[in-house]
């Protein structure tokens, strides 16, 4: 009998978009390129198919035939876009979640950019890890790269992640220090102000923060900074 992917966290059942319902699996890159052009953004922002595939192969070299764990700290928590057989609450040391990536398309525009989260060095980060079983890891890894490595925002690395069921080595997407859209640290007030006003192709920037905070509350994860950011962004959003 197939094991329940949500056996460790039944509360997540129905809260994660099934892979086959995710538009990330069927995204039309030609349409994306046209949208980037319409927004005044250079097509070169997007990785070529060849570049993306080279990154995938290099990262996964020597891991053929193994289960693949993927660490989720942002939107992957509610829409991973890949099939998985297990999900666990996870904790990563040595990196922290930071709203540090200027978003001029997904959650903002060139005139009113938003902010997306990335893994930056220092501190620690709570999230989820998903296990992709070995028999489908090769196929599903293509969708992982389509999901997270479309642009040059991240560097894929396998990092040690702790879970209540034991440690795993998980594929993690760390901020690319050479990414021109990477921003320096800013205050909570400024971060909230930006998030409150920005909106892009994927919707209002504040929705991203709301979904992340909802996921943490569902899992019982205490993150005072995230909850404070949500509160301040809500206040700015509702201000006249």
From TrEMBL:
Residues 46-56 have a biased composition (Basic and acidic residues). This is glutathione-specific gamma-glutamylcyclotransferase. One of its GO terms (molecular function) is glutathione specific gamma-glutamylcyclotransferase activity. Residues 40-59 are annotated as: Disordered. Its EC number is 4.3.2.7. The keyword Lyase applies. The lineage of its organism: Bacteria, Pseudomonadati, Pseudomonadota, Alphaproteobacteria, Hyphomicrobiales. InterPro entries: ChaC, GGCT-like, GGCT-like_sf. It is an enzyme of class 4 (lyase). GO terms for biological process: glutathione catabolic process. One of its GO terms (cellular component) is cytoplasm. SUPFAM superfamilies: Gamma-glutamyl cyclotransferase-like (SSF110857). Pfam families: ChaC. Keywords: Lyase. Gene3D superfamilies: Gamma-glutamyl cyclotransferase-like.
């Amino acid at each position: 009998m197939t094991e329940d992917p949500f056996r460790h966290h039944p509360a997540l059942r129905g809260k994660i978009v099934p892979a086959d319902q995710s538009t990330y699996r069927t995204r039309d890159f030609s349409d994306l390129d046209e949208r980037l052009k319409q927004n005044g953004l250079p097509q070169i922002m997007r990785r070529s198919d060849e570049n993306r595939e080279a990154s995938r192969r290099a990262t996964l070299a020597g891991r053929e035939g193994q289960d693949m764990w993927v660490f989720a700290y942002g939107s992957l928590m509610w829409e991973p876009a890949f099939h998985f057989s297990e999900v666990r609450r996870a904790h990563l040391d040595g990196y922290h979640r930071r709203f540090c990536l200027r978003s001029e398309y997904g959650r903002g525009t060139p005139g009113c950019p938003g902010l997306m989260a990335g893994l930056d060095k220092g501190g620690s980060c709570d999230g989820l890890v998903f296990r992709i079983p070995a028999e489908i890891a090769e196929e599903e890894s293509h969708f992982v790269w389509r999901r997270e490595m479309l642009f040059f925002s991240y560097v894929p690395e396998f990092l040690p992640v702790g879970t209540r069921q034991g440690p795993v080595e998980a594929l993690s997407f760390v901020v690319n220090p050479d990414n021109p859209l990477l921003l320096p640290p800013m205050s909570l007030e400024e971060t909230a102000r930006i998030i409150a006003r920005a909106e892009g192709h994927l919707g209002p920037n504040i929705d991203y923060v709301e979904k992340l905070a909802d996921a943490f509350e569902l899992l019982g994860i205490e993150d005072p900074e995230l909850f404070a950011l949500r509160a301040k962004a809500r206040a700015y959003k509702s201000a006249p």
